[in-house]
Amino acid sequence: MIKNIFKDLSPRMIKGISLGLAAAAAAILVLSFIISLIVYHSNLTESSLPAFALAIIVIAAFGGGFLAARLNGSRGLINGLICGLALFCLLLILRSGSSIPVPLQLLCCCLPGMAGGFLAIK
């Protein structure tokens, strides 16, 4: 089954997924900066940061999957899943003492990515 998913990887599909991944990474950077300003200038404690981090990952994965599927025009679930997995791998490589468990981070990358891809095609 996995061979069937990766069998039809065309240059157009790879370009869409890479642009979706770049958009998701940019969204993570921008949203993290905004949340850090909010936490710094308010009464929120640092213990609320993991919840914000999960929300940021979900929003970015959804947007990346949506963009990847919209650029490809078909196979939204697969495009969103691959974009979400690529985002998860990127976050796993850049992981530095995060308090978010890895399986939860995987779910928060893949499921919104697939949902974004699905909604981009519908």
Annotate the secondary structure layout.
Layout: H1 2-7, H2 11-40, H3 49-72, H4 76-93, H5 102-121
Low-confidence stretches: none
CA gyration radius, whole angstroms: 15 Å
Strand content: under 5%
Number of helices: 5
How far is it from the N-terminal to the C-terminal residue, by CA? 24 Å
Mean pLDDT: 88
Apparent shape: elongated
**What multimeric state do the chains show?**
single chain
Whole-number tally of structural domains: 1
Largest sheet: none
Order of helices and strands: HHHHH
* Class computed from helices, strands and strand pairing: mainly alpha
Number of beta strands: 0
Approximate helicity band: over 70%
Task: Write up what this structure looks like.
With 122 residues, the protein is mainly alpha-helical. The chain has one domain. 80% of the residues lie in helices and 0% in strands. The chain has 5 helices and no strands. α2 crosses α4 and α3 crosses α4.
In brief:
With 122 residues, this protein is mainly α.
Pick out its properties.
mainly alpha; 5 helices; 80% helix; 0% strand
